[in-house]
Specification:
- By secondary structure, the chain is of the alpha/beta class.
- The chain is 39% helix and 15% strand.
- The strands form 4 sheets. It has an 8-stranded mixed sheet, sandwiched between helices. Strands 11-15-14 form a 3-stranded antiparallel sheet.
- Strand 3 (121-126), helix 6 and strand 4 form a beta-alpha-beta unit.
Amino acid sequence: MKTKQIESSRRTANITYAVRDVLLIADEVAKSGKEMLYLNIGDPNIYDFAPPGHMIEDTYKAMLDNHNGYSPSSGIKPALEAIEKEAEKKGITNIQDMFITTGASEAIDICLTALVNDGENILTPTPGYPLYTAIQSKLEMVANPYYLDEKNGWQPDIEDIKKKVNDKTKAIVLINPNNPTGSNYSVESLQQIIDIALEHNLVIFADEIYDKLLMDGVEHTSIASLNSEVPIITFGGLSKNYMVPGFRIGWGVVSGNKNVLAKYLEAINKILRSRLSANHPEQYCIAGALGGNQDHLTVAMEKLVRRRNMTVEMLNAVPGISCVKPEGAFYAFPKLDIKNSDNHFVAELIKETGVVVVPGTGFGQVPGTNHFRVVFLPPENILEKAYKSIGDFFLKYVEKFEK
């Protein structure tokens, strides 16, 4: 019998996820017995971070009470009420709908699927979280990246956004605080983006999953709080702020003009119903998380500020590496002054030192520039060792590959 190879769908051809793809190299290096220092994945639970104990207790109790079947498609009432209250605390009004999903990732996927047709596009931040470009590829959308301005603290480049809007543009994505740069957007930038969205009838996707992880006394402004009429979906979740990425609990809050949103909301809810529900027992910890004691954030931010400071100081001390100081989340996006690609630099770094970072190409960047992303969640002793290795390696790299 002749066998023929099964062909994959075209929509998967351009899907990449640099954060995990880099492990293909790291896993081979680890087999040699080399000590590995992983600065690639934003998972706080690998290190010395843990969720508030009451969240675990609430989830466990829900399981014991046999809340183990399907939940309503949009989520359970107590959780939705808590999410609404949290949104109102952020200043969001004119809320039209809310829904709980399997991580914020599913909410983003559902909302994009319900909005964009073949040949249409959304404006995505560059650099930005690669989930958006992966979904973009899956839905066979046309890529339409806009740039963040490194010289302006990684704020959105408003003039670039204006140039990129076309008659096929359906939405603009904001990641604030930003992954991978750690930038926190100014009110001025947010207001200008609202103006663009209103002018061109765009939906704003506001990814605010890191909105409680802020440093140096900066405040986070939810873009939906600045205008109650523009259609905005604000994405949030428990993963980062509450240190439970494995719970896979996220949500979307839809605000704006009811008449403008009506057809779009029905499309979103069709998808929500068709996939049944998000994880049920974990939804019972949402109300306690959002409304309960937030002391875990104080402890977490004390660690993150120290580790952020070490990251910026040690990387900026390396000639040929420069790093804008992050104000939120737990990422930094240092720039490399090299002729080769950041993919090449990172591959050689992993092979030589065992330090695993992610090439900037995986997040997008201004053409002609090279970066890499670091996660500064690990304890200071690990970070110090990793950054010293990066600094020593950079000098060797320039000597070997840049002459």
